[in-house]
Hints:
There is one protein chain. By secondary structure, this protein is an alpha/beta fold. It has 2 domains: 2-147, HUPs (Rossmann fold), CATH 3.40.50.620; 157-275, 3-Layer(aba) Sandwich (Rossmann fold). The protein is built from 10 helices and 10 strands. The protein has a 10-stranded mixed β-sheet, with helices on both faces. The longest helix has 29 residues, at 52-80. 33% of the residues are buried.
Amino acid sequence: MKKILFPTDFSDAATNAFVHALEFAKIVNAELILLHTFEIPVYDSQFFPENYAAIYSSIELAKFEMFKDEIPKLRAIAAERKLDDIIIKHRLMDGDLLYNLKNAVEEDQIDFVIMGTTGASDWTKFFTGSNTNSVISGVDVPVLCVPAEAVYKKIKTIGFTTKYREKDKKELKKILKIAKKTNAKVKSLYVKTSGSDVSDTTIKEWDKEFATENVEFLVLPSDDVKETILDFILYKDIDILTTITHKRSFFESLFDSSFTKKISKEVSIPVLVMHEG
């Protein structure tokens, strides 16, 4: 059985992402591990309070109480969606979110991380915000990022952006496996810029190799990669976009502020970020 790590701060954005996490767990046959982290204040040793232990335990207890109160709400959401048979486990850890998240991914042998992103400028924060960006570049497993406005709907079409590199095939095969479980179609997009070095032979080879799969390959000539991806999401009714991270800077250039304003207004879909194989 696969394992999904779901970091939550019990905010509305996280609770919205929890619905996506439940549904995704059902598709890939996974259990959910909820991770809640909190930071204990750091005191200057000069002014180290005598009752530090008492402060520490009262903060820990307060966080534990909050954690305890929030869990039934999440279980109620699962029951409401008839997904209460999904195994839900919990981890309450103090310290830095990213540090704990990396540890949990290793210790629990996690297959996916699913997290909500917040704020009006959702996608800006998503790709350039320290938390999500650090998570994406800090763990080696796919990360599904769910914008706060993304209402869950059945996944019928999965978008996949490629550069037709040999190592992209491995990730495409993983996506096709997920797509099969939900009877979804995969639409693969390659934006062919004037500086493109991908040959027609390579494109034909891919068509041939994946001929028996439920995938449609689109090659769109354009030098405006961002606009083309946005049009692709809008006009091809993409329910979830899959992208392979090449370098961290890729996100920062792809999702700059003018583009993100547009995308967060017009499109609110989850993005599954895969890592280079």
